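Session log. Operator J.P. requested a structure for one protein chain; no other inputs attached. Running the standard single-chain path with C-alpha cell output.
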Amino acid sequence: MIVTITPNLALDVTYELPELRPGQVHRVREVHKRAGGKGVNVARVLRSLGHEVLVLGLAGGSTGQAVREDLDAAGLPHDLVPCAGETRRTVTAVAGGEATLLREPGPAITEREWAALEASVPDADVVVVSGSLPPGVDGEALARLTARLGARDVPVIVDTSGEALRRAAPYAWAVKPNAEELAAVTGTDDPVAGARALGARTVVVSLGAGGLLAVTGGEVHRAAPPRVVTGNPTGAGDAVVAALAAGAGSPWPDLLADAAALSAAAVLAPLAGSVDLAAYEGFRTCLSSPPER
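Structure written below.
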C-alpha cells in the first residue's frame, strides 16, 4: 500500500476559460470541484494505475466535509484527522493552455492536531508527503515526521518547498522540487549543483518542458517526453511523484522515463490528479524503445 500525506488539504476549484485578462469580467465555460492538495492528486493518479492507496491529512469545517465526501465518491480510502480550522480552497483558472492558481493559506494547526496526524500513519510500502505546510507547522516538524518514517525502512518521497524542503531532504528516500523551488532553497540556478547541495539521497527536479533530472549519489539521469504537450500543467509534478512511488526500487533510468511519460500524460488531462492513460502508454512505448540507428 502507498500512503499519501497531504498536510494542507484543499477543495480544488478549477475554472475553464477561453482566455484570462486581468481586470476584466470572464464567463466561465466549466467549473470543477473536488478534493485536492498535492498528496490527494498523487493518490488519484496511483489509484487510476491500479495501486492500493490511503489518503491522510487534516480536515476541518464544511470545506473539510466536502473533501471527505468527494474522496468517498471517488473511491479513495482516507483517514483524515479532524482539525478546528476550516480546510482551505484553491482556485485554478485554465485558459489558453496556461493555469493561474490562487491558493488560500489553510487552517492553523495545533501541536496536538499534528501529533494526531503523525500517529495515523500505518505501515506502508511507500509514504509520500506532498504539498505545502499549513500555518502552525514548520519545517522541523516535517523533518521529524520524515525521519520517523524513514527509520521504519520505508521509502519516503517528499514534495514541498522552502525551509520545509531543506530540513526534510536529508531524511527522505527522494525529494521532488521543481527548478525554481530548488534554486530558491540552494541559491544556485544550476539544478545539478543545487541537487547536490540539498543533501538528499536522491533529488528529482522538474524542468518543465525540459523534462526531468535525477541526481542520486554520483549519478545524473535525464528524461523528457517524446514531444512537447500543452494543456493543464498543474498536476504534472504530482504525476511525477506518483510514478516515483509506484516504481520505488526500480533502476533510475527506467523510473525517470516512466515519470516523464506519466507527467506528460497528466498535462493532457483536464484536472490535476488525472492522466490520459492512452497517451501515457504511448509515451512509455516511445521512451522505452531503443533509438533508431
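Operator note: The mean pLDDT is 93.
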